[in-house]
Design goal:
The chain has about 80 residues and is α+β, with helices and mostly antiparallel strands. The chain is about 30% helix and about 20% strand. It has 2 domains: about 45 residues, no CATH class; about 30 residues. The protein binds zinc ion.
């Protein structure tokens, strides 16, 4: 799951069906990501494997960094 359950417009993306720009919304439903065109009603499932690999790595790194920072805070917390 990449997107929130709340529908969000994807800026600069053209609909593959009606070729209208900025009409595609991305959202998650049941853990699956979808894109939907508000202009023609086109709906398509987005696969995680089609997402850029760079984004995945960046997300993982950020999550690891946050986890490390969290444990560091716990260690030096005098209340701990
Ligand atoms: Zn469309």
């Amino acid at each position: 799951m990449v997107f929130s359950t709340k529908k969000r417009f994807i800026a600069g993306v053209t609909c593959p069906k009606c070729a209208v720009m900025d009409k595609l919304q991305a959202y998650s439903e049941g853990g699956v990501d979808y894109r939907e065109c508000v202009s023609c009603g086109f709906k398509d499932q987005m696969r995680v494997s089609s997402m850029p690999k760079e984004v995945q790595t960046r997300v993982n790194t950020t999550a690891e960094q946050i986890a490390m920072q969290t444990s560091a805070v716990r260690i030096i917390d005098p209340k701990g």
